[in-house]
Design brief:
The complex is a heterodimer of chains A (about 200) and B (about 200). By secondary structure, chain A is mainly α. Helices cover about 70% and strands about 0% of the residues of chain A. The chains are: A mainly alpha (about 200), B alpha+beta (about 200). At the A-B interface, helix 2, helix 3, helix 4, helix 6 and helix 7 of A face helix 1, helix 3, helix 4 and strand 9 of B. The structure holds zinc ion.
Chain lengths: ~200, ~200
Amino acid sequence: MIQLRPSHQDEPSTTNLVHRCLQGDANAWGQLVARYARLVHAVPVRHGLAPHEVDDVGQEVFLALAQNLHTIDDPERLPGWLVTTARRVTWRVIQRRRHEESLDQFADSGEEERRTTLPVARMPTPEDLLVTWGRQEVLTQGMARLQPRCRELLTRLFLDHDEPSYDEISAALGLPKGSIGPTRNRCLQQLRTILEGLGVGAVG
Amino acid sequence: MTVHVSPDELLSLVFDATDLSAAAAHHLETCAHCRQQEAELRLLATDLTIARLSEPGPAALARYQALFAQVQQQPAPLQRLANRLRAVLTWDSRQQPLLQGVRSGGAAVYRQLYAAEDVELELMVEPAGSLRRVEGDLIVEMDAGVDAPALVELLDSHGEPVYSVETDADGIFRIEGVQPGRYQAMITRVHAAPIEVTTLEIV
Ligand SMILES: [Zn+2]
């Protein structure tokens, strides 16, 4: 079972948030969504779905959560519930798309689609998804421990939806364009060392 | 003396798709250490891609946050996931004295039939050493003409999937290597409500 800990100690536990939601606290729901949205999204992403499909899955999973909060016995198991539900919803989206594609033989995912989806060889198992979740969680922690300058550079290079160019990054960070590459390499090495310290990095 | 491919060269290979020099490429082919380094970097690159693609946009977050108020105003489950069918055991070969003959290695082959509104689930459980092979057939009575696979999951007591398999378009599936025990089954369908079997005893 994966345990998603709040990233700061003063953040409320998932159990606390779920209980407050059950009392009608919309603020607690907002915090729950903020805490788990990225991890819910990781499931359809891991299956190679396109961005609009990823949002559709998120919508259906959080709707199911809002409707089923009272049935969740152990809120600390919420990550498992979310991953299982997201996998089912994702599976249905894939089946529907296959059906539509079989009707449209000339369907071709364009360049945009290829850039924004993950290539996937086979359907991930529940274990694969839990491994992905664990690695994403550790990656978040690792990024937080980077030196600020490295964190800023890697965030812009790898985590920004807009995928800014080297020119834009150079201007934003006041870093000569020519040193972005070498700095990136140094920061990636630093990140790897941190991730290894957190118990991730090895293949397996 | 072995000279490994430098970290910078490996990083360029993985993150910029830059070709290695001929010597480095040859070394990589023969060196397990360097291949391991490359594999780890590729995994990190994938993790970063997943992180970028998974980051919810503000519009998506706002929509998810608004769901709470919608459900509070209209608590009845609207969508299909919440609206599951419950299949119950209607027939078990072990309760048919004449059918108890088929035995192998102490455990017997047995068949069960579960039924819900418009659908039947036929199961055959067969010993395979200390484990079991579960073969199933999902039979939809009023087939609307849409043949689509279903997702069959056996869940543990916490509702987490232990075995997961896709049926073919005719509803046939097989799960190998199942530990005897008590499960729930969840069957997700493309065009219809999911089916739940609350207790599925594999003996
Ligand atoms: Zn080497």
